Amino acid sequence: MGSSSSSYAPKTIYLDVDGKVQKVVFSRHCSPCDIKELLCSSSNIPRNTAIMMVDPEGALVSIDPTMPTNSPNSLYKVVPLSTGQLGEKEDMFQNVLSQVADQFSRAFRINELKTEVTNRLAMLEKRVELEGLKVVEIEKCKNDLKKLRDEMTSRGGGRVNCPCKYNFDDGKKVTPRRDVPNYPKYTLSQETVEALKKPTFDVWHWEHNEMLSCLEYMYHDLGLVKEFNMNPITLKRWLLAIQENYRNNPFHNFRHCFCVSQMMYGMIHLCNLQEKLTLTDMGILMTAAVCHDLDHPGYNNTYQINARTELAVRYNDISPLENHHCAVAFQILSLPECNIFANVDPEAFKQIRQAIITLILATDMARHGEILDSFKQKVDNFDFTNEEHVTCLKMVLIKCCDISNEVRPTEVAEPWVDCLLEEYFMQSDREKSEGLPVAPFMDRDKVTKPTAQIGFIKFVLIPMFETVMKLFPQIEEIMVQPLRDSRDHYEELKQIDDAMTEAQKKKTENMSLGGKKK
Q: Which residues bind Zn(2+) 1 (predicted)?
């Protein structure tokens, strides 16, 4: 009980009043107002005067029952506040209030901005979704149109134009790719890097994404990215656009594009062309090889001209396919996000463009004799400082690469023959159905694999590569000898086929004679 009653003891504080000690005692039940009135009366200060209390160090002491007690040696002092002091306090209080209000205002503004940004993002997402739906609808319409045209063809048996991805009257010829390319980045092993430089490279073991990475590597390795100040992301987008614009034909497809480009890369290394030609020439050779068969429809120039297709009419029967490949190549390059030559001087780009067109047009086999004869006239006194000589060499190089499959090992080359014959037979079947002339080497009823290859190797491939060998003797063992071996291989196959045909013929005759004797 004693301890309990002591907790209700009055609180005593000591004041300094005009230099004299004044003792003030109050109960813990007093309110702050009661204590203030008591202090005023003790210090002879009029009632209702605003006061404050400070300790000997000048620190404020709270005026309420919780104030700390002191001793006569540590006196509190009661100080009345003047109007000016009250005004200062009020100003300070108002200033604090203003700052707090400003902070709240900022917070509200941030919330408003967040709300606005969220709303705008939602609108953009909606627009992207709508645009995506439009693309899907467009693709659906294209597919429906294709099905309708195929149905009309099958019903009517009439002739239709050779399919072509691009309507040249339409402003949107190529779908832009503004997204960052997403094909996986493959780290090429040292073995692959070395194999890429050789004609023996097996192009059948690679997926499209891997071929894209190999092409990307070639451009970096040859120094073309640095020479033309290419944005590496733009190079990726361009390669993706190239791949997307090769059709899924049996032969003229993206793998053929890669095959030709890899052979060009191999010949650049094999013939030490980096020491003889400029980096600009290297870029022209590689880019022409990559683009040389873009959007090939799977039906050759002879069909285009005989069927009077849109391409033949557009290009006046003059290399319609090769002209189309060039046009598609530069439609892709006209897109800022795919323009690997964006940082090239405009005048220099004009020359690069003309050179690429010249090389792609040179792949028309109708011009084979003309181009090879021109090179034969120059090869014995070839001058690498002569622009005309160098242009002719580049035309022959892209021709060699375009038809170089038989240079590769038999297990790599032979599947390409099957692919080519499949494409030939598709064309000859169509020509028959449309009443058009059919080339014997394309007719499934007349041609065999050996007969298709022997004449081409003997009269086209070997003479051209042997002419190039005069300028670059190092290609004989790696490129020319495999052609001779391939010729011998198909001649042996032809002898076997002829023997079997003769044996079958005699067997049929004997059976016929046996039937007559009965």
A: 256, 292-293, 402
- 321 within 8 A of 296, measured Cβ to Cβ: yes
Assign residue 416 the CATH number of its domain.
1.10.1300.10
| 253 is annotated as contributing to ligand binding | yes
- What's the whole-model pTM score? 0.67
What string of H, E and C letters represents the secondary structure of 192-219?
HHHHCCCCCCCHHHCCHHHHHHHHHHHH
3-state secondary structure of 27: coil
Domain-embedded: residue 162: no
The verdict on whether 252 is a catalytic residue reads yes
Predicted local confidence at residue 222, as pLDDT: 98
Query: Would you say 325 is a known binding-site residue?
Result: no
Q: In whole angstroms, what is the distance from residue 18 CA to residue 21 CA?
A: 8
Q: Catalytic: which of 205, 220, 252, 489?
A: 252
Asked whether residue 340 falls in the same domain as residue 452, the answer is: yes
Q: How confident is the model at residue 307 (pLDDT cuts 50, 70, 90)?
A: very high
pLDDT higher than 80, residue 103:
no
Domain that holds residue 42: 11-80
Is residue 480 one of the residues assigned to a domain?
Answer: yes
The predicted-structure confidence for 259-303, as pLDDT tens digits, reads as follows: 999 999 999 999 999 999 999 999 999 999 999 999 999 999 999
Whole-angstrom distance, CA of residue 75 vs CA of residue 80:
17
Evaluate whether 423 touches 250 at the Cβ level (below 8 Å): yes
Asked if residue 146 is part of any domain, the answer here is no
- Shared domain check, 237 and 130: no
308, 367: one domain: yes
Mean per-residue pLDDT, 311-333? 98
**254 annotated ligand-binding residue:** yes
- Please indicate, yes or no, whether residues 133 and 58 belong to a single structural domain of this protein: no
Residue located via tokens 């005309």: 388
Task: Using alpha carbons, list the distances in angstroms from residue 516 to 46, 507, 508, 510.
Answer: 156, 14, 13, 10
Helices (H), 362-445: 368-379, 387-402, 410-433
Task: Report whether 453 belongs to an annotated binding site.
Answer: yes
CA distances from 240 to 88, 179, 475 (A): 73, 11, 32
Residue 437 lies in a domain: yes
Query: What amino acid is encoded at 287 in this protein?
Result: T
How many domains does the chain divide into?
3
β-pair partners for 14: 23
